[in-house]
Design a protein that fits this description.
This protein is α/β, with parallel strands linked by helices. 48% of the residues lie in helices and 10% in strands. It folds into two domains: 279 residues, HUPs (Rossmann fold); 97 residues, Tyrosyl-Transfer RNA Synthetase, CATH 1.10.240.10. The strands form two sheets. A seven-stranded mixed beta sheet has the order 3-4-9-8-5-6-7, sandwiched between helices. A two-stranded antiparallel ribbon has the order 1-2. The structure holds tryptophan (TRP).
């Protein structure tokens, strides 16, 4: 396969204190294989994802018991998302923890592509990132890739993306990140902070490498082809801010991995540590099969939804239940393939409650309506609380922007550029 050969153009890495990325020759997408029926790219996730195979294909490492013990040793506890392997894979997490123990603090870096409203599923990795910020007492860079969402969607409209950017900013601030330790970068607004680094990255990536890593073709628009260095730049920004090589840990869904493979391969040439990552699984949607998607409103519970539509959507959610009550009583439900169980488990139930729910469901003692009612009862106040925090966030924006200024979404629309009228 030419794709594999081309990836090798990135060259073999030197032996370093940080993990080698094995699997450099593997393709990021597995859709052309005859055995595997799933496809994972930064812009598309299709099919039934086999996470163990992804670890193999991407050359990442599974979260092992020894890493869990390291986390426990440092923080005194293990977050449920690590314990239950919602975050299931990593690169160099062990190195980050060892450096931390030596007193070398890392930065967190995560992001959001503002393609629509924020839904319940988006909040999981953000809540986890906030947890890491609090536990390790570290700084965070949060990138909003409005450029990416404009470029990657044929029908996108920049004004609409700006509106989502502002709305998403409120959701991010509502998560409760520490304003003294968090900077949000909106790409088109704050590009000057990223541009010098991104050209250093861009200069060292050929088109054939970009094609191999990201699946670009000759008909891909050139904005997309030029975008990856912009998402790579925040991996190195902390070293510039701190004026010394500074470790960075990126919590992200595993579909973002191609970006980090690219930046890891360049890091040492540029004199920066390779960014470490902790990868999450994907979030299921409310309908059968797919993931929660902002572009399909019926598959997602949005942070701005009112109580009535939340209730309606939960009632229509896909579950792992049998077609009839009698069959449910006889055969039990399929909790492993149920989005209501999934959300209750990851967001609302305690570990014990979740186990009890699992057994009650699979043994036929619990009906789907009961779980849906439990979900409605829990998700409504959860969303109400976020809505209150989103309102407060409107007055907190300048505490989070990288330039300390308010976010005026009208500023940058070309139609409002009255530069000669001062
Ligand atoms: N590309 C990501 C998305 O579409 C957004 C993003 C930018 C990101 N930088 C990141 C996500 C760092 C995780 C970590 O959602």
């Amino acid at each position: 396969m030419p794709v594999e050969d081309e990836y090798n153009l990135l060259g073999k890495e030197e032996a370093t204190s940080q993990h080698q990325d094995i699997g450099l020759t593997s393709t990021f997408s597995t859709n052309n294989s005859t055995v595997e029926k799933f496809n994972v790219t930064p812009w598309e996730v299709e099919g039934d994802v086999d996470y163990n195979k992804l670890i193999e294909k991407f050359g990442t490492f599974s979260i092992s018991e020894s890493i869990i013990n390291m986390v426990k040793h440092i923080t005194g506890e293990v977050h449920p998302y690590i314990k239950n392997r919602f975050f299931f894979s990593h690169r160099d997490l062990d190195w980050i923890l060892r450096e931390y123990e030596k007193g070398n603090r890392f930065y967190l870096y995560t992001g959001r592509g503002p393609s629509g409203k924020v839904h319940l599923g988006h909040l999981l990795p953000w809540m986890f990132t906030k947890y890491l910020q609090d536990k390790f007492d570290v700084k965070l860079i949060f990138q909003i890739t409005d450029d990416e969402k404009f470029l990657f969607n044929e029908d996108s409209n920049f004004d609409l993306i700006q509106k989502y950017t502002y709305e998403n900013l409120l959701d991010i601030i509502a998560m409760g990140f520490d304003p003294k330790k968090t900077k949000i970068i909106v790409n088109t607004r704050d590009i000057k902070y990223l541009y010098p680094l991104s050209i250093e990255i861009a200069k060292r990536i050929t088109f054939s490498t970009a094609k191999a890593v990201f699946g670009f073709t000759n008909s891909t628009n050139i904005g997309m082809i030029g975008f990856p260095p912009i998402q790579g730049a925040p991996c190195f920004l902390p070293s510039l801010i701190e004026k010394k090589p500074t470790p960075v840990l990126i919590p992200a869904a595993i579909d973002q991995d191609p970006y980090w493979r690219m930046t890891r391969d360049l890091a040492e040439k540029l004199g920066y540590p390779k960014p470490a990552q902790i990868h999450s699984k994907f979030i299921p949607g409310l309908t059968s099969g797919g993931k929660m998607s902002s572009s399909k409103p019926e598959t997602a519970l949005f942070t701005v939804d009112d109580a009535e539509s939340i209730e309606k959507k939960v009632k229509n959610t896909f579950t792992g239940g049998q077609p009839t009550v009698a069959m449910q009583r006889k055969f039990g439900g399929n909790a492993n393939n149920c989005s209501v169980y999934w959300y209750l488990n990851y967001l609302f139930d305690t570990e014990k409650e979740s186990q009890e729910r699992y057994y009650a469901c699979t043994s036929g003692n619990l009906l789907c309506g009961e779980c849906k009612n439990d979900m409605i009862k829990k998700v409504k106040p959860f969303m109400e609380d976020i809505q209150i925090k989103r309102k407060k966030a409107q007055d907190m924006i300048s505490k989070f922007t990288i330039d300390g200024k308010d976010f005026d979404d009208k500023d940058k629309r070309l139609s409002n550029l009255n530069i000669y009228e001062q």
